[in-house]
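User: I've been going back and forth on whether these two constructs are worth ordering. Before I decide, could you fold them both?

Assistant: Sure. I'll take them in the order you sent them. The first construct and its structure tokens:
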Amino acid sequence: MNKNFKKINTIIDALALKQDDESVKILDEVGTNSSVDEIREMTARALVRKNNTGSLSIVIVNKGKGINDLSTVVAMSAINELLSLPDKTEAIKILEDTIEQHSEEDVRHNARSVKALMALS
């Protein structure tokens, strides 16, 4: 990881530690919309580690972000982070809501797959 990525990683990690809506908003607007896969991957992991409704919804519900990212590296990283959560209660609730209510079939399918993986972990 080069010097710039280390700085970006430090910023993302700091935002992950903050327990406020503004940090989630920044991670969503800047990190998940980056054209750089590594930044989107770091951001997805940070959002999952926050483990709250807002941050988990971004990586589970939004098409093109988190588990629905077009980069398999980003998507798998988000999935692995979800699987490693010590408390999966909120993530499972959001996955269930997504399966039942989301308008996009591929997003519902991904949510079903991740929920099945979580049941096995």
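The second construct, handled the same way:
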Amino acid sequence: MKTGLELIFTLQLAVEIMDEYNLKGLEKRHANMLRKTLEKNLESSYDKAFDLNPTIAINAMNLKQRMISQIATLKEAEAIAFSEYVNNFFEDKKKITKDIKITIKQID
């Protein structure tokens, strides 16, 4: 069941990543318009999720940011291979994750 947290965290992450890019001209204007709209609409939802469990909220953001940054560094052939790896994971994720222990801790 989707709770909307995925959307909230992903859009919040997008807003934060926009700060890292030096956009100019029309791109910057459009990005800022999108950012302002997202921030206005996401702020209360993100705050609610963060208030429920700050550690999980921060970890979710940091882990997704790490994953996105890692994927962005892949060459095209590597990205295709990684896509197949991810697809295999989703086809049999119960088997793959049954022996994996997930520990929630602060990630910097």
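Notes on the second construct follow. The chain has five helices and no strands. The radius of gyration is 17 Å.
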